[in-house]
Each structure stands twice: as structure tokens, then as C-alpha cells.
Amino acid sequence: MSHVVIIAGTPSKRSRLTGLTDYSSHTLSKAGISVEVIQVTDLPAEDLVQAKFDSPAIQDALAIIEAADAVIVATPVYKAAYSGVLKLFLDLIPQEGLRDKVTLPLVIGGSIAHLLAIDYALKPVLTALGGRHILGGVYAVDQAIERNEDGTFTLAEDITARLDRSLEELRLTLEKDGITIS
């Protein structure tokens, strides 16, 4: 069975980014793909800030990435780049930690003006980590994701359509690479 890990690099679990990661996780699971989520904020802050590579929590998270066939990297845009929370974690991934993994960026921002953060901020770091098969990614503006009273999220139709296309591309790439889907 294919295994995908979602790295959620948002400082707040109530972030609208959670709408993108929840939708992605649910969609991939329905397609018979095993999904695990690493909430970076669930990792010990001291271990992240002090780059404690030998921390059991960090080692467990890195083992999840190592075992994955694909990695979805999800982040809000702050100051024209990915979040500092995500950066702390990415700095702990070994130099070739994304080698041979399909990688899909998911990014959310306050306006369309931050769209290029995927290409000019996030993708270079993913490449530096050995990522060679980085899919185009999905960028969403905050207003396209509604936070519901029950804690769930409703995504605008254009966002779900773009996510569906990207997640299908991810699934087909895994299949093409000979990775069993279910």
C-alpha cells in the first residue's frame, strides 16, 4: 500500500491550512492510500529550536518521512515565504531526506500576491532536501476556505477541483513508479 505523509507546518491547528490537509488526507484515504500527518507544532518546541536531531520525537517524525512514498508539505505564507515553524522542522530532515519521494506543496496565503512563494521559497528547499519529483502544488487564499462552527472546514469549489487534480497526479505518479496503491 502506498504511504503518504503530510507535514503540516502551521503554528495553529485552527488555521485554514488544516482545511487543505484534512481534505487531502480524506481524499487519499478514500483512494486506498495510507496517510499519516506530522503536525510540526506537536513536536517538542525545544527540540525544534535547538535542532536536537537525536530527540526521540524528531527521530520518530523523520522515520515516518523515510518510510513514506510521497510527502505533502503544507504551510501558510508569512512574509513571502513558508512558516518559521515549518523551517525549523525542514532543517532537521537529512540532506537527501526527500530523495525518491513524490512531493506536493500545499500553500495558503492572505492574497494571490503570495502565489510565487511555492516556486521561489518552498521548492528550492525541497530540492535541497533531495526532492527531484516535486509536483506543481496548490495555492489557496484564506477566503477560499471557510472555518465552520464545528471545527471543520468548507473549501471553495475551485480549491477542491485543484486539490483533486493534484492529488490524482500524486496517485498516478505513485502508480507509474510501481508503488502499490491498495
From TrEMBL:
<keyword id="KW-0288">FMN</keyword>
<dbReference type="InterPro" id="IPR005025">
    <property type="entry name" value="FMN_Rdtase-like_dom"/>
</dbReference>
<dbReference type="Pfam" id="PF03358">
    <property type="entry name" value="FMN_red"/>
</dbReference>
<keyword id="KW-0285">Flavoprotein</keyword>
<dbReference type="GO" id="GO:0046306">
    <property type="term" value="P:alkanesulfonate catabolic process"/>
</dbReference>
<protein>
    <submittedName>
        <fullName>NADPH-dependent FMN reductase</fullName>
        <ecNumber>1.5.1.38</ecNumber>
    </submittedName>
</protein>
<dbReference type="InterPro" id="IPR020048">
    <property type="entry name" value="NADPH-dep_FMN_reduc_SsuE"/>
</dbReference>
<dbReference type="InterPro" id="IPR051814">
    <property type="entry name" value="NAD(P)H-dep_FMN_reductase"/>
</dbReference>
<dbReference type="InterPro" id="IPR029039">
    <property type="entry name" value="Flavoprotein-like_sf"/>
</dbReference>
<feature type="domain" description="NADPH-dependent FMN reductase-like">
    <location>
        <begin position="4"/>
        <end position="144"/>
    </location>
</feature>
<dbReference type="GO" id="GO:0052873">
    <property type="term" value="F:FMN reductase (NADPH) activity"/>
</dbReference>
<keyword id="KW-0560">Oxidoreductase</keyword>
